[in-house]
From TrEMBL:
<keyword id="KW-0378">Hydrolase</keyword>
<dbReference type="InterPro" id="IPR036412">
    <property type="entry name" value="HAD-like_sf"/>
</dbReference>
<dbReference type="InterPro" id="IPR023214">
    <property type="entry name" value="HAD_sf"/>
</dbReference>
<protein>
    <submittedName>
        <fullName>HAD-IIA family hydrolase</fullName>
    </submittedName>
</protein>
<dbReference type="InterPro" id="IPR006357">
    <property type="entry name" value="HAD-SF_hydro_IIA"/>
</dbReference>
<dbReference type="GO" id="GO:0016787">
    <property type="term" value="F:hydrolase activity"/>
</dbReference>
<dbReference type="Pfam" id="PF13344">
    <property type="entry name" value="Hydrolase_6"/>
</dbReference>
<comment type="similarity">
    <text>Belongs to the HAD-like hydrolase superfamily.</text>
</comment>
<dbReference type="Pfam" id="PF13242">
    <property type="entry name" value="Hydrolase_like"/>
</dbReference>
Length: 260
């Protein structure tokens, strides 16, 4: 453990760590149960801003994973927390789904297309050219540009779909304004999650399947980082990066004893 404090809090990515291609990773159910039974604080993190925590809790339950809504932290929640800290009671023009609009409403933000403080871009199943055009004009007029995450593509049954990062690049090309991305790999996502569960970086672990988002953001936030090999990053790719996780395991099934 490199003389770190014992792990008291756990942060875990969702896709590639707990679920893969719509099915639970072997051992994920037991791992989640061990977290709940241990009484240790934990959050499941996702850059996806489409769904509310309640939505995601129901979707996870549908594949056999019992994760309560209060144990789910999305880039939408992190974005809302960030904006509430920066400009309490502000206003925003939002391109996104219920996960993002609900999070902003809950921190007291007004959603408007008239001189908003921010243009906030998240994921949506159908990006509207009209909405994107409106966002470009508002940014040109002085609204600040925020995006929930930099992911360029997202998965679907038919193949890759353009995601938040790709649409943000289009808006940047049109306006010359770069967005501030709140989600991974920004360590802001980790810091906001830690604050949500009153955790401390020295005694918190981050589990992820991607070196370029989960592990780097966990490392930059000062967390103990654990790479699982059930998602994007393979074992032979680890040495290509100039940083390393604190440990590498095959799957979350190998972490059950560490939790207990």
């Amino acid at each position: 453990m490199n003389e770190r404090k014992p792990i008291e809090c756990w942060l875990s990515d969702m896709d590639g760590v707990l679920v893969h291609e719509g099915s639970p990773v072997p051992g994920a159910e037991e791992f989640i149960r061990s977290l709940r039974d241990s009484g240790k604080r934990f959050l499941v993190l996702t850059n996806n801003s489409i769904y509310t925590p309640r939505d995601l809790s129901v979707r996870l339950r549908g594949v056999g994973l019992e994760v309560p809504a209060e144990a789910i932290w999305t880039s939408a929640l992190a974005t809302a927390r960030f904006l509430d800290d920066q400009r309490p009671g502000g206003s925003a023009y939002v391109i996104g789904e219920a996960g993002l609009t609900t999070a902003l409403h809950e921190v007291g933000y007004i959603l408007t297309d008239t001189a908003p403080d921010y243009v906030v871009l998240g994921e949506t199943r159908t990006y509207s050219f009209t909405a994107i055009t409106r966002a470009i004009r508002l940014i040109d007029a002085g609204s600040r540009f925020i995006a929930t995450n930099p992911d360029a593509v997202g998965p679907s049954n038919e193949g890759s779909l353009p995601a938040c990062g790709a649409v943000a690049a289009m808006i940047t090309k049109a306006t010359g304004v770069e967005p501030y991305f709140v989600g991974k790999p920004n360590p802001m996502m980790m810091r906001s999650a830690l604050n949500a569960i009153d955790g401390h970086s020295e005694s918190t672990a981050m589990i992820g399947d991607r070196m370029d988002t989960d592990i780097v953001s966990g490392m930059e936030a000062g967390l103990h980082t654990i790479l699982v090999l059930t998602g994007v990053t393979t074992k032979d790719q680890i040495d290509r990066y100039p940083f390393r996780p604190s440990r590498v395991v095959q799957s979350v099934a190998d972490l059950i004893d560490l939790v207990e």
